[in-house]
Design brief:
By secondary structure, the chain is α/β, with parallel strands linked by helices. It contains eleven helices and nine strands. The strands form two sheets. Strands 1, 2, 3, 6 and 7 form a five-stranded parallel β-sheet that branches. Strands 5-4-8-9 form a four-stranded mixed β-sheet, with helices on one face. The termini are close together. It comes from Paenibacillus baimaensis.
Length: 282
């Protein structure tokens, strides 16, 4: 299937999806779990997301009539239930993102399973029981994680980059991400002089517009991923509004959530091309 054009609904040329990894402080808490940091800089910077950034993104999505996919660690649901309720009430998809934003490659089998179970329980305590897709923290996966997702009835994954359209991997539909369409590589800066300063939002939107044009030519999936503590800042929201408004006017685009894209793949492309880790299977 590598050189075959992917078929989208209604003969659309490509698909567009907008996703938010609503992880707030959890990546920092996971990294520092064995220490006792006494600084507040990064924690407060990340807390901007659940305090303010998330509501700005929700307002933007409502204004443009876009249903998005939010991937949320369980700890965020426990700490900020009002924000998670607001996402759900606005009609957006909610997916799993670990419990404390754990990197699955740093866990054993039992710990990965515990993160899936605890993350789901925490979200369902706020929004009620439902089937949810999965996006792995830090976009890393292991064979055991795919096996556990199937064991627990998780319908799809959205963490890998093996194609620029949906595909099968380890028996699950994969809704692929890519680093080029993640806001963190352009904007993430937590101080201390480490790393490059954030890019101008106009530069980022121009880069994303060019990638959209390329993906449209080849019939791919344009899946943006933002973080509300990063893209919830004023100038970045304005830049996002310009880009999304332009894409919404394109009649050749199928707009969908990650769950809808996985559902389309499951129904329309079952058995056409399956990937196993380390090689192709029939």
């Amino acid at each position: 299937m590598t050189h075959t054009t992917y078929v989208w609904p209604d003969a659309k040329r490509c698909a567009v999806a907008f996703s938010i990894d609503f992880d707030g402080e959890t990546p920092y808490l996971w990294r520092s779990r064995h220490t006792k940091p006494n600084t507040l800089g990064e924690l407060e910077q990340r807390a901007f997301g659940p305090r303010q950034g998330i509501y700005r993104i929700l307002k933007l999505l409502n204004h443009l009539d876009i249903r998005a996919s939010f991937f949320i660690p369980g700890v965020i649901a426990e700490k900020y239930p009002t924000a998670v309720e607001a996402i759900d009430k606005a009609g957006h998809e909610i997916g799993l993102h670990g419990y404390l934003h754990e990197r699955v490659d740093e866990l054993d089998w039992g710990q990965v399973e515990e993160s899936i179970i605890r993350g789901k329980q925490a979200l369902e305590k706020v929004i009620g029981p439902r089937t949810m897709g999965f996006r792995s923290p830090s976009w890393e996966m292991t064979p055991q994680t795919f096996e556990l997702l199937q064991r627990h009835g998780i319908p799809y994954d959205s963490s890998m980059m093996g194609y620029d359209h949906p595909y099968w991997i380890e028996g699950l539909p994969e809704v692929p991400v890519q680093w080029l369409l993640d806001d963190a590589i352009f904007y993430r800066y937590t101080g201390g002089g480490a790393g490059n300063p954030p890019l101008n939002p106009n530069t980022v939107m121009d880069t994303w517009q060019q990638e959209f044009e390329g993906l449209k030519r080849y019939g791919g999936l344009f899946l943006m991923t933002v973080h509300c503590w990063i893209s919830g800042r004023g100038s970045r929201i304005i830049a996002l509004e310009r880009l999304l408004s332009k894409l919404k006017k394109d009649p050749e685009v199928w707009w969908a959530t990650c769950g809808e894209i996985a559902g389309h793949h499951t129904k329309q492309h079952a058995g056409q091309f399956h990937e196993s880790l380390g090689g192709r299977t029939p």
